[in-house]
Amino acid sequence: MTRFAIQRHYASMQPLITLGQNIRDAGRLEPALIELVQMRVSQINGCAFCLDMHSKDARAAGETEQRLYLLPAWRETRLYSERERLALAWAEELTALASPEAVSDALHEQAREHFDEEALVDLTLLVVTINSWNRINVAARTIGGHYRPAAH
Fold this sequence. Notes:
With 152 residues, the chain is mostly helical. The protein is 64% helix and 0% strand. The chain is globular and about 40 Å long.
């Protein structure tokens, strides 16, 4: 059972919606990379609604089922480009913040080989945004499984 309906509070959440749209509109991150990052962060945070949404959006945009299935084990496969792998590593470290060494200098140096500063800022904001949505949906206990692509 949900605790509150997010749709009723969209006005309050408009800054997050706008931020997400601005990241997409900037065009510095590929749509497939955006969906993979949102999926991976949502897996880490256990957000069923966001997993439902982003898996369906990814599939509607042409993502393969195989890449979605193997996403939790992305390090053990070569299905993802080096840029995607660095984005996933960045997203995981930024989501976990498990230590003062999180988002290490070494990872930053590797990421800068594939992302210019603006794109890396966009990637960071993308991770921040999906973490926020995960926390909102988990707090609201939003039920996953009923999302339809392009319905948001």
